Sequence to fold (293 residues):
Amino acid sequence: MELLDGKKLSQEILSELKEKLADAKGPPPCVTFIRVGEDPASVYYVNSKQKKAALVGIESRLKTFPESITQEQLLEEIGSLNADSSVHGILVQAPLPSHMDERTVFNSVAPEKDVDGFSTNNLGRLVQEDPEAFVACTPAGIAEMIRRYKIKTEGRHVVVLGRSLIVGKPAALLFMRKDPFANATVTVCHSRTRNLSNITRQADILIAAIGQANFVTADMVSPGTIVVDVGINRVDDPSSKKGYRIVGDVDFDAVAPKCDAISPVPGGVGLMTVAMLMHNTMKAWELSQKKNH
Fold:
């Protein structure tokens, strides 16, 4: 059983980007993070993204707004960042307050600065297999993990558990593409799927992205499967200092012995997500340079 080591891969990607930037001329790539409110998880995620940006040599800026900001005001702020040529990437940290429509907010980011890949424009371009599309960072991280571990996907059955706009749908689209590390037969399962275990047992590659701790059990997986666990769930653990521990959507200890390869949680896809955000910011910067020359 091989461990798909997101820590090692993400460090590789970040050092490649750092090397690339070391020879760059002119102002570095710049990403602006927008955070509304003080949600502890959002504060933590934005901080860690800023640290990774600094490590690579990408400039990051942070704009924070109180939860009381109106959607109208937020859209104005995004509009001024869209017009600012010194900003190459814009990331609106989810979740947003309940009085805002996330789709409207994500779609207001200029497509060429949408490094999160959540806009209608970039999702549509992913469907069209446009190489300049920005792909949501988590599914992009899964695809990069598969590619760097040289896992064969052509003609194989990829089963995706979950149909979210952020992971499930783009992941399915990525593995359907005409590409040597795609060309798969893809099945998407969700909360209304019947006979779920029958379908997951047919998977050559199983991607679990449903946000339920230890949901995938050993009887749902056939021997020799490759399992990519996207889940990040807190479960109570009195024996841990923090009183909880982080587990994936897959019951790792029970499932791992049956797998050819499996990604751990933590230390798997989560770290790839941030690395791909840096990759997307770099891509936005390169595309803007190309356009201006």
User: Anything to note?
Assistant: The chain has two domains: 27-110, 137-269.
